[in-house]
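Bench notes, afternoon.
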Amino acid sequence: MRHPAPRLARAAILIILGAGLLDEIEGGLLYAILRDLPGSPTLIALLYGEVRAKFALLALGALLIGWLMVRDRRPGMVVAVPVIGGSLFSGALIATNMHAPALMQGYRWSWTALLVAALIGSFWPRAFSRAP
């Protein structure tokens, strides 16, 4: 999907890698908090902001991937609908109510659709890519 917008594809990759890095940092913060229960207010505040940033990056990354699917104009672009919809849904909840139980619903739509796209693409690569 890098053909229609290589810079956008690189940005999506870097954003998702950033979210992965924040996930590792989250694990370290959780370990430090649990090691010294109940945890310091500083660590809890750091965790609070870090988790929001990670979820925002995941929503933005999924949105960019969905947009790349649409721009490529391949048969697999149908999968972009739940990817974009889920990322917008989660992004709206991050902005308005981060504690909403439905927050993960949008991620489930996006990432399940991406998993289905990967499965389809493993058998039918041309559904998502122009590469030989």
